[in-house]
């Protein structure tokens, strides 16, 4: 009877039947011990039969188990979020040789361009903070000279190259300074941007910090993803083009679509980049409508989105159905999990004029 009572308790608090394989995480247990008195012939010292005491102990254990389970569930639901992985361990945070507002470790923007609403954030990753390295992502967004288009760009400097942050910064500024339209010849545009990256970073090619220029073969390089959307917030054709693994995700009618899915033929740790891989350019046009959201991001955030199928992505279907306040947007992008330690940059565009009280 005692074993049956304990089995009932263990089932209630989620451990499983007695003798079953233990769960990976320890759960609270309750041990009930009843010692029969020899003088009572198998009864208790108080004169109560052992089977009655077993039943009372079992009922008490079940009630206690239910209390523990309810308390555990309330604790897990406190923040209303489903975790993506284990929380990170504390690490020292080192500045990249100092701090400068022209090259911040965190950047945050929000507002409107014409009838398109913008949110943007760039956060130096835990790995770079620990090593005292700079943020290697960059973003830029501007209204075209004729006021018809919003041009947005996100770049992720390749950490395997020196001074990659300079390549990323030059790429997004060059992209948003061009007169881009959805029907533009993208190859010519990316060739122009690649030339700008090469010229601007030539002095860094193969040059370790504080060392003379060498003849190393890995000059600064960067991914680049560009979007061009109608500025009036109405229905029209929008276009994206990309070299490298910085994703573009389109939220339409409550569903995410990854515009440039990963190439299954390429190893996960290898990506194309500017200025060398112009032949890897990919293009996509979409039917842009009021209420749509277009997200350009570096892979430090894109990986967590899982192509639009992750827990995080499904949460953002609701929280990003309209532009969030800047502080909320920063929290959405700046989650703390040990398995996501790269830089994160997100540039999001909402079709239409939305509330811009972003602070």
From TrEMBL:
Coiled-coil ranges (or none): none
Residue span(s) of domain PPM-type phosphatase: 117-359
Domain of life: Bacteria
Classification via PROSITE patterns: PPM_2
Keywords of the record: Membrane, Transmembrane, Transmembrane helix
Gene3D superfamilies: PPM-type phosphatase domain
A Pfam family: PP2C_2
Segments traversing the membrane: 48-69
Protein name per Swiss-Prot or TrEMBL: PPM-type phosphatase domain-containing protein
């Amino acid at each position: 009877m005692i074993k049956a009572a304990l089995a009932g308790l263990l089932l209630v608090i989620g451990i499983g039947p007695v003798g079953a394989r233990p769960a990976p995480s320890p759960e609270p247990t309750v041990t009930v011990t009843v010692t029969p008195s020899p003088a009572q012939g198998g009864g208790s010292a108080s004169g109560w039969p052992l089977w009655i005491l077993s039943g009372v102990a079992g009922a008490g254990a079940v009630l206690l188990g239910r209390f523990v389970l309810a308390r555990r569930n309330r604790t897990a639901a406190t923040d209303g979020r489903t975790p993506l992985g284990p929380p990170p361990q504390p690490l020292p945070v080192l500045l990249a040789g100092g701090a400068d507002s022209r090259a911040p470790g965190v950047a945050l923007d929000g507002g409107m361009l014409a009838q398109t609403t913008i949110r943007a954030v760039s956060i130096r990753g835990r790995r770079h903070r620990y090593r005292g390295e700079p943020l290697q992502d960059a973003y830029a967004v501007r209204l075209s000279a004729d006021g018809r288009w919003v041009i947005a760009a996100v770049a992720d400097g390749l950490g395997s190259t020196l001074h990659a942050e300079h390549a990323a910064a030059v790429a997004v500024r060059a992209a948003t300074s061009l007169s881009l339209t959805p029907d533009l010849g993208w190859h010519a545009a990316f060739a122009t941007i690649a030339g700008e990256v090469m010229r601007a970073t030539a002095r860094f090619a193969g040059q370790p910090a504080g060392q003379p220029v060498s003849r190393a073969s890995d000059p600064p390089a960067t991914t680049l993803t560009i979007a061009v959307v109608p500025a009036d917030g109405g229905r029209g054709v929008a276009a994206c083009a990309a070299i490298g693994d910085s994703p573009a995700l389109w939220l339409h009618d409550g569903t995410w679509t990854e515009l440039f899915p990963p190439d299954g033929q390429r190893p996960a740790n290898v990506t194309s980049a500017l200025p060398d891989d112009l032949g890897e350019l990919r293009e996509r046009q979409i039917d842009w409508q009021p209420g749509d959201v277009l997200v350009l991001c570096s892979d430090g955030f894109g990986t967590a989105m899982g192509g639009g199928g992750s827990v995080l992505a499904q949460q953002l279907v609701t929280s990003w159905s309209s532009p969030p306040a800047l502080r909320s947007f920063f929290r959405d992008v700046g989650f703390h999990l040990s398995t996501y330690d790269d830089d994160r940059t997100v540039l999001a565009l909402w079709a239409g004029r939305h509330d811009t009280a972003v602070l």
